[in-house]
Amino acid sequence: MTALQRYAANFLLLLGLILLAPISPASGQEIGQSTDIKTQPALPTAAAIKECLSTPRSAECLDNLFREALKTHSTLEVLQLIDRFEAQDAELRRDCHPVVHAVGRETFRLKTTIHDSFAACDQTCHSGCYHGSVERFLRGDDIYARTNQHPSQRELKQKAASACDPRISLALRFQCLHGLGHAVMFFADYELNQSLAICDALPDEWSQSSCYGGVFMENVSNFTDEKKNFHATDYHYPCDQLADKYRSECYLMQTSRMTEMGLSTEGLLAECAKAGAFVTPCVQSIGRDLSNTARFGEPRTAAMGCELAQGQNRLACMRGVIYALIDNTWDGRYALAFCAAFNSEVDNESCLKESVQYLRTVFEKSADEINKDCTRYAVDSRRCIELTAK
Description:
There is one protein chain. With 390 residues, this protein is mainly alpha-helical. It has a domain at 230-390. The protein has helices at residues 3-6, 28-38, 46-53, 58-69, 75-88, 90-111, 114-120, 124-139, 153-161, 170-187, 192-200, 205-221, 244-260, 265-272, 279-295, 299-307, 312-329, 335-339, 345-361, 367-377, 381-389. Helix 8 (124-139) packs across helix 17 (312-329) and helix 15 packs antiparallel against helix 16. It is globular.
């Protein structure tokens, strides 16, 4: 099983409202600085990272790599290194999320609080540094020694309740809660219902839902196949066995499992049609999966997948691609180029509208910031700018 299968790249999901501006692509001066950083022996090579990813204890291997790196470099410098590796190496672009989780875990070990860890992290590869920080908070320093010892549900509920400071921005609180869901699932020994019940102890519906998303992503991406909550022949399990309040977040990840079971995009659409009231999140999950194709330089292939859907389902698929692409970088670099890949002008327009709206509302981008993205990344920059003004 590949690291991609263990850590689904989509982080739908990730619907966090981000108040912090993303790191912009490096300037010429920054590139020069990055080159200097890369030559220092404390920083891991791409080969060393990929070697860790191929081992059974990949998380521990990655943590040890970055523990050394963070002795002499900041978290931001390490994340910039990984960002460069992503640009140069398709394998690391695909598998970067568990890598930046490790950076987050080691950052929390040094900073000791979620607040300070989040201040050191950024959005690199679906915000995995934030998620890893929360993992370390919940798992503690003896993270590897206690892999077979799991705290009680009561202990988990108590610790989960204090994990995410309600005074931090909504954006960072989402990242905290999503990472909490990952960690809760691990410490509940991948007992799905117990993990969801821990999320239910959080104070409001939005917090609970954000936590559910992390639980379901961890179910898809965990390292031990035997502990995954899936069924050999039921494409909809576990979503079809859960209470309605859990099903939307469950279906937002479920097509990753359906794809593992051998379904094509046409087959995924057919199965999503059987999801009842949850057709839309299921089809959005198809788009989330297709987003990887767009990120790897084939936006037309991703657009063709969404074009197989009709009406509102096509829009849901489109949103799945857009949200995942923007969540990955916190800007329009991939999403706006994806929009130009549709054959229909109507679809081009809908895609641009959804992208601009997502940047404006979820990431709280100003009109000037979105216009800069339009100018830099959109094929039809004029129309993109016009939509920003509306």
